[in-house]
Write a structure and sequence with these properties.
Layout (H helix, E strand, L loop, with lengths): L17 E6 L2 E12 L8 E6 L8 E4 L4 E2 L28 E5 L4 E11 L8 E6 L9 E5 L3 E3 L2
Antiparallel strand pairs: 1-2, 1-5, 2-3, 3-4, 6-7, 6-10, 7-8, 8-9
Length: 153
C-alpha cells in the first residue's frame, strides 16, 4: 500500500500516544489504546482513547483529527497557547472542597468530586458532589449548579 501524499491531522497518533480531547469545560488528558483506522463517515480515522480521569468508565471512540497531541495542559484546539478554563472559579469551589448544599427540605455538607464545567441548562456551571456519611453505602452523589453551593471553611 502506498503512503499518503498529504498527511492528515491525527496521522502522527500511535497506540500509547498521550493526547487531549475537547469537552465542555476544557481539554482533558487521555491515552490512545487502539487505532480503528478509517472507519468513520467519509473515511474519517477513529481511535479508541482511555481518559486519564479516575471517574472514566472505560475507553471510547474519538476522531483522530480532533485530538491534541501531547500532554500540554495549557493548550486548547485552534488557538495556539490559549489557557484552559481555570480549576478555581469566582466562587472558590474546586475539586475536594467541602461545600454546603441547601435543598428546600434539608441542607447537608458534601465534598466536590468533579467539576463538570458549563454543561448545565443555559451554560450553568455544574459540580458533582458526594455527601458525608458514616456508612459508605448511605452517601448521596448528585450534580448541582455552582449557584446552589456554599464553601464551608
Amino acid at each position: 500500500m502506498r503512503a499518503r501524499k498529504h498527511p492528515r491531522p491525527g496521522d502522527e497518533l500511535r497506540v500509547g500516544s498521550r493526547v487531549r480531547y475537547r469537552m465542555p469545560g476544557g481539554a482533558y488528558p487521555a491515552t490512545v489504546v487502539e487505532d480503528l483506522g478509517d472507519l468513520g463517515v467519509n473515511g474519517r480515522r477513529l481511535v479508541m482513547i482511555q481518559p486519564s480521569s479516575e471517574y472514566a468508565e472505560g475507553p471510547f471512540m474519538w476522531p483522530a483529527e480532533e485530538l491534541l497531541v501531547g500532554d500540554d495542559e495549557d493548550e486548547t484546539p485552534g488557538s495556539g497557547a490559549r489557557k484552559c478554563l481555570p480549576d478555581v472559579h469566582s466562587n472558590g469551589i474546586r475539586v475536594g472542597s467541602r461545600v454546603l448544599y441547601q435543598t428546600p427540605v434539608v441542607s447537608y455538607e458534601a465534598e466536590v468530586i468533579e467539576d463538570r464545567g458549563n454543561v448545565g441548562w443555559n451554560g450553568r456551571h455544574l459540580y458533582r458532589i458526594r455527601s458525608f456519611d458514616d456508612y459508605e453505602d448511605a452517601r448521596i452523589t448528585v450534580e448541582v449548579p455552582a449557584t446552589a453551593l456554599t464553601v464551608v471553611e
